[in-house]
Request: fold
Amino acid sequence: MRTKVRIHYDNKRNFRNPVLWAWLDGTGKFQKKVYPDGRDDYGLYYDLVVNRTNFNFKFKDELGDHTIWEDERNNRFYNAGLGGEIWCKAGWHNVYNVRPADPVGHIKEAYQKIKDLIPQDNFYLPQTDVSKFETPSLLGAHKLTDGSISFALFHPRAGRVYLGSNLNDFQTPGNCPACADEEESFIELDLYQGYYNQPNIWWTRVPADQIDPELPEVEYKFFVHGGIGGNERWAWDPYTRVYSDNYQRENCVVADPTEFEWTDQDWETPDISQLIIYELNVYGFTDEDSDLPIEEQSTFKGVIRRIEEGYFNDLGVTALALMPTSESWSHFGLGYDPCSFMSIEKDFGDLDDFRKLVDTAHNHGLAVIVDQVFNHTSNQFNPLWDLIDDGSGPGGLYFSGSTKWGNRVATEKPEVNNMLIDSCKLFIEEYHVDGFRFDATHSNYLDHQLLYEIQDKIRDSGFKADTILIAENLPNESDLNFEGYNGYAQWSDMFHDKIKALLREGVYRDWCYNTPQGLGDIFYFSKNQFADHTNNVINYSESHDEPSVKFEVETNEITDCNIKDRKAKLAMMATMTALGQPMLYMGQEFGVNRDANNIDLNKVTPDPNCPEFEYNPFFDWTQRLINLRKKYGALKISGANPIETGEFSWMLGPWLSEEKGKNKRLIGWRTKDLDSDEEMLILINFEGADIKVKLEFDVEGKWAKIADLDQINDFTTETEIEPMDTLIIEQNKKVDFNLPAYSGFIYKKL
Reply:
C-alpha cells in the first residue's frame, strides 16, 4: 500500500540544513532521505510517498561531512491511522495529527480574570509551584462564585485539548465527526505558559449561562490530541474531587466544596505530644456491625455514629488515623491501590459525609489524620498511566519504574510533586484534616524531595503550620528529622519488631532477635538509632501491616490462653508508656487474634483458639490504661533528651548491674512532669520467669501502684490504696522488688 503524507516540522533546534530520515527495520526494511518541500507559518514541511503503511523517522542537520542527528529518544513512528498530514516538534518523539496549539498567554493572566470569583472559605484552588515561580496552576474543575466553572489540565505534550461534558453531550472533534461544521458546540481549552514559564497548562472557563441549572451535577472528561498514550483519547482529570458512579467507564464530576456547614471553628490541631492514635479502616471498622443500619455499615456514616456515641472518647484516644480515603481500585480492601489523589472513595459515602466525619471528630476532641499513598498507584485502573507521553519510560511523566505494590510515582519530578502537595492542601482546606500519614516513604520507593517540599509548602509557609506529618519510612532514615521538633514523625519499626520478637520469644521475621540488646533504646524513642526528638517517633505493636500479638506469639507455639492475654497486654503497656507517640490498630483494644492486613473487625472473634476469652475485661483494662496516658503528663513527656532535663531516668535495664537486671529482658524507668511535679515509675518484664531486682531512688517517699496487667486503679485519694500496692522508700533509698513472669507495672509517686 502506497502512503502519502505531509510531515510538518517546527525546527526549533535551528538546523541549518534539516533533513528528514525515514526507515523501517525488520521485514521490508527501507531507508529514505527527504529534503524540505516548503515552509509555512508552522515551519518546514516534507511531502513523503512510501510503499509502507508505517515507518520510523527523525531529523538531522546535514552540514557537509558533519551531520548532527536528533537524539535516539526522539525517534518517531508513523502509521497510516494518523492520516495524511502530521506535525512534529524538535526534540520530541510525539507525532500529532492536528496542528499543535500556540500558547495564548501566561496562566497568571487567566488567574487575574477569576481571582475575585474564587470562593474564600473551605475551598482550594491549586497553586502549588515548587519551582519558586509561584505559578497558580488553576488545575482541576472549580465552581466560581458567579456560577461559572474553571477547567484546567496540566499537559506539556498535548497538541489540542477539548472539554467533553454533559454541558455539550460530550461533543469533541475526536468523537463527533458529524459535528465538524458545528465548532461552536466544542469547548476547546487554550494553552498557557505555566510551570517554568513553559506552555503546559490548558484552561477554559464555562460561563454560568451555559450551564443548565436542571443538571444534577456537571460531569466531564478531557479529550487530548497528541502527547498521550494512544495518540488521542479521553483522559480523566487528575484533580477531580470525585468520580461518577461507574468511574471506569464514566466521568469526573464537578463538586462544590463550599456548601457544607462546618461547626469546628474553635478546633485546634493538638501538639504531637498529645496524640494517642487509633488506626482504622473505614470499611472494616463497622462492616457487618449489627448495631448499625446496613446503609451505615462500612461507611463514613458508621464511623460518625461511633464518634457521636462516644466510643473513641471513652477509649481515650485523641486522633483517628484513617487508612486511605482516596478512590481506589479494590472494593472492600485496604485502600492502598489509589486511582487518584484528590478524590474520595465513593464506597465510603459522599464528600460531605467525609466532611461531617471530620467535623464530628473535631467536636469530640479528635484529630483526623488521613493516609496518603504517594509512592505508587493502582495497576488496574490508573488515570495517570500514559496521560502524558514525554518519552521518559513506561507510563509517561507521572511514573518511574515500579514498586512491589504497583507503578512507582515519579516523586523526583517537580511537576508531579506539585500535584501531590496540592492534594494535601486540598484535604486541609476542604476537609479540615489535621495531618497525613504517608505510606512507604523510604527512599527506595519515594524521593524525599517531596517530603521536604511538603514541609516547606504546608508547615513552613504557614499554610497550616501545625499539620501533623507522619511517614512510614521503614527502615527509618534520619534525614526526615529536620531540627527534631519540626521533623516527620516516623513509624518506629524497630520498636514494633523488637516487641514482637520479645513476645514471641524468638526471631521475628528473620531479622530481629529477642535478645536484651537495644531494649533501652526502643523505649527511649529510638534516639540512638534515628530520632532527634520524641516528635520523630510513632510507637506501635500492631498495625494493618502486621498480625496481632496473639497471632504472632502462636507462630512460635505459645498457645496458653492466659500467657497470650498477658503478652497482648504487655504490648499495649509498652506502647502506651514508651517515649514517643503511641498508636494502636482497631481491634487491639479487645485483644483480638488476627492475621496481617485483616480489616474485618466484626468478623474476628477475640481469640478463636481461646473460646472462653471475652472482649469486655480486656477492653476495660485497655481503656483504663489509655486514659492514664491521656491524663498524666508524666506518661507523655517529650523533648530532645528528657534525661538531660531531669524528666527521665533509668531504673532497670539489661545494660545495668546485676541487681538492676543485667542481661535480662526487662526495663524500668522514672519520669517527671516538670509542670505538675507528677512522677511515674514504669516496670516491664518480658521474661518467662520471676526476676528479683533492687529499685534505687534518690529521695525517700511513697509510690502507689496504679496499673499492672490484671487491673488499673487510678485512685483519687490515698485511702483507696491497698498497703500491698505501695512502695515505701526509706533512708537507704533502695527497695527489693519481684517482677513476676510477663508482668508490667505503673506506680505513681504520692
User: Anything to note?
Assistant: The longest helix spans residues 414-431. The chain has a mean pLDDT of 94.
